[in-house]
Amino acid sequence: MAAPIIVLGHKNPDNDAISAAIGYAWLKNAVEERSVEDPAKRQRYVPARLGPLPPETAGVLKKWGVEAPMVINNLYSRVSDVMTEDPYCVTAGATLLQVARLLRKYNVRALVVTNEDGTYRGLVSMRMIAERYVAATELVEDGHSQMAVAADLIASLDQRVDEILESDVLRLERDARLDEATVDLMNSPLREAVVLDDESRPIGIVTRSDVAVHPHRKVILVDHNETRQAAAGIEDAEVVEIIDHHRIADVSTINPIKFLNLPVGSSATIVTLEAQRLGIEIPKPIAAVLLSAVMTDTIILKSPTATAIDKQVVDYLAGILEVDPTAYGVEVFAFRGGDDDMPIDELVSADSKEFAYGDGMVLIAQHETTNLESVMTREAEMREYLRGLVEKNGYACALLMVTDIIAEGSQFIAEGDLRIVNRAFGINCSGKGGTWMPGILSRKKQVAARILEA
């Protein structure tokens, strides 16, 4: 079976990035089930994420019994991408004759040797057996007759494997980076390496031939198409699809791909549209996940990024769930909990994105709330944290939008070169308390675009 294709959003994932990954992975798997009869021949799609779950995402997934996507750190090829799983094994008490027959039967060059309890002990290869037989010919040079040599070779057929096995074999972890493992294998005196689980049981074997052709992990990007927002190792991966509602950025591909980029309020909207186009019914748990993403990304359809298409999708998903969409959106936002005791790093940077600005970078973060007054009691903390981000990452400026969902506006709090924000909006946000920006709800459409064009 082919390696699974990873469906993945951006760094510092928000609800839409994670929910769209869940929804699109489900959709792709549903298409496979409908079109490929043999389960063993179906391509598998796995949702993943590049960070912790936002509280609203965690709340929705828990309520609807949806498994959270796995966390990955990079897209570099791994040992598991090339290893032969479930390698053929023999016990240490097996004879060379038994080993030779198994090598021939399975047409392999090496067998893993295990103890009686199945734990790893060593490796025996065709090369080792050949060396044993070549060594026997030295008896002739020592004056022994050919008959004596033949007798020695025949006797060796009953020799136990543990008398000739190689125990100093390179051991690899299945999730280790393949490029690093390749260097170790090439420097190893043996041609093979073993992969063990946490209980020292063999789960794979890797040969130099396996690493000769470097594979590339396949990935579908959702909710972004920027290398800066992607997982480390994106340059080593093969991007096979992109589902996004942001500007077209700098991800490039070797081959033509499906790139679905629509000017709507949420990537989850695009996933829903695709399910409708393909005539695939969305189950309630997936509908709940997708609807939560549309409602958070469009701020319950109040954001200027919300379109008539988003409204149609919201009505469609709410119909599946039999809920009032606005009430559902309020419920999703309520999963975020209170702002008073939220960790400051989560409050400021849980939903943050970097943008190239001239020769440098700016950070634009957003925290949505129904209680702006409560959040602003922590202004000193927020400013200190923003200054730390500027110093640590070398940002030209770091801007936090504290967006009041009820009042439909955002309080701007900025640190660093404030001229960048002031010039873009014609304001002065240097004073205590920040600057109230009525009607500003969208980072993408109303803030990032103006700063980058200023």
Query: Strand fraction band?
Result: 15-25%
Radius of gyration: 29 Å
List unreliable stretches of 5+ residues: none
Structural class: alpha/beta
By DSSP (H or I, 4+ residues per run), the number of helices equals 17
| Portion of residues within helices | 25-40%
DSSP E strands, number: 18
- Global shape: elongated
Mean pLDDT across the residues is: 92
User: Major beta sheet, specifics?
Assistant: 6 strands, parallel
N/C terminus separation: 51 Å
Describe the strand arrangement of the main beta sheet, using strand numbers. 3-2-1-11-12-13
Write a brief caption for the model.
This protein has 17 helices and 18 strands. It is an alpha/beta fold.
Kindly list the characteristics that best describe this protein.
alpha/beta; 18 strands; 17 helices; six-stranded parallel sheet; five-stranded mixed sheet; 454 residues; elongated
What topology does this entry show?
Elements: E1 5-11, H1 15-35, E2 45-50, H2 55-64, E3 70-71, E4 84-85, E5 89-91, H3 96-106, E6 110-114, E7 120-125, H4 126-136, H5 138-141, H6 146-156, E8 170-172, H7 178-186, E9 192-196, E10 202-207, H8 208-212, E11 218-222, E12 238-244, E13 258-261, H9 267-278, H10 284-297, H11 308-321, H12 325-334, H13 344-349, E14 352-357, E15 360-369, H14 372-376, H15 379-393, E16 397-404, E17 409-416, H16 419-425, E18 435-438, H17 443-453
Parallel strand pairs: 1-2, 1-11, 2-3, 5-6, 8-9, 11-12, 12-13, 15-16
Antiparallel strand pairs: 4-10, 6-7, 9-10, 14-15, 16-17, 17-18
Helix pairs in contact: 1-9, 1-10, 2-10, 9-10, 10-11, 10-12, 16-17
